[in-house]
Design a protein that fits this description.
This protein is of the alpha/beta class and 309 residues long. Helices cover 46% and strands 16% of the residues.
Length: 309
């Protein structure tokens, strides 16, 4: 089943009733004298088990402890945003798999050569997916990118990821002064937002598959709590890039993160991708990827299952 993404960008009160998420507007919370018929129109309930990601994007949102408890028990990722509406926090369950201790040990015992081989596969797929986006969106020359993808060595010792990225971003957006930089000019704002949503989806998938999102196969910044999520999301980034490219080309203003733009970005978990020869929503595909990663750690598989564009 495809899990839903819920976005809250206005003051709201989130509580729990009969294992359902109850969404109340402030008028109902503050005014107990309103007729019951009116109150019913001012509140909505959602089944907790249908929710995969919750985005909290307002300082006057109130969430009960019971809601957070049940959301996390159902493997939901909860994202909080700052005053600029950019995701700043991510809450995940401490455990998401019944054999988690065993899976942690398999992950911790993974050899350096294995992790380098997995990173090689990851970067090769990422570059090929970037090439597909560049060719499909900007009709760019991709011969060099295919060559770089084929030449990626174990651990990407030649850093072909960076070479491909420089070429990719230079040719994807025809916007004066644009470079891919977190603090750069738009549409960097859209890319930042989209990657944050993607990161939450991947981190959630890793937890459900019984792995630690902190321990990466390549990223190892000691200040980064989601190194493995940042590793595994790499081949999925081009799907966000393609979505942002379409938004830019549509002619709508993208200087600021409007509610309409954010609504479009929240479609990321349901984007259709091709994985293992089948079409699948991105969130479901991520689950296949993380499950295959664990099997690589145990020796059951030699390759991570990634989507191909």
């Amino acid at each position: 089943m495809i899990k839903k993404t819920l976005y809250f960008g206005n003051p709201v009160y989130l509580s729990l009733r009969n294992a359902q998420l109850v969404i109340k507007l402030p008028e109902v919370v503050k005014n107990d004298t309103l007729p019951d018929s009116f109150k019913q129109r001012m509140e909505v309930t959602k089944p907790i088990e249908d929710i995969g990601v919750v985005v909290l994007d307002h300082r006057q949102i109130t969430v009960t402890s019971g809601v957070l408890e049940v959301l996390l028990e159902n493997n939901c990722a909860v994202i909080t945003c700052d005053s600029k509406s950019l995701p700043v926090g991510l809450m995940l369950p401490l455990y998401g798999n019944t054999t988690q201790n065993e899976r942690f040990r398999q992950q911790l015992d993974a050899s350096v050569p294995l992790k380098k081989q997995l990173w090689q596969q990851t970067i090769k797929t990422k570059i090929l997916n970037q090439a597909a986006v560049l060719q499909g969106c900007a009709d760019g020359e991709i011969g060099c990118m295919k060559t770089w993808a084929a030449d990626v060595k174990s651990g990407d010792s030649d850093n072909l990821e960076a070479r491909a990225a420089a070429y990719y971003w230079k040719n994807l957006f025809s916007i004066a002064g644009f470079t891919r930089d977190r603090d750069g000019i738009p549409p960097n704002n859209l890319l930042n937002y989209g990657y944050a949503i993607l990161r939450a989806v991947v981190a959630r998938g890793l937890v459900i598959s019984g792995m630690l999102p902190t321990l990466g196969i390549h990223h190892h910044n000691r200040y980064n709590a989601y190194c493995l999520a940042d590793d595994i999301m790499e081949p999925y980034r081009p799907y966000v890039d393609k979505l942002v490219y379409g938004m830019v080309q549509s002619g709508q203003s993208y200087e600021g993160l409007t509610k309409d733009l954010k609504a479009q970005m929240l479609s990321i978990p349901t984007l259709e991708v091709a994985i293992a020869g089948k079409r699948s929503p991105l969130m479901v595909a991520v689950g296949q990827t993380t499950a295959s990663l664990y099997k690589c750690f145990t020796g059951e598989l030699r390759r991570i299952v990634y989507p191909e564009m």
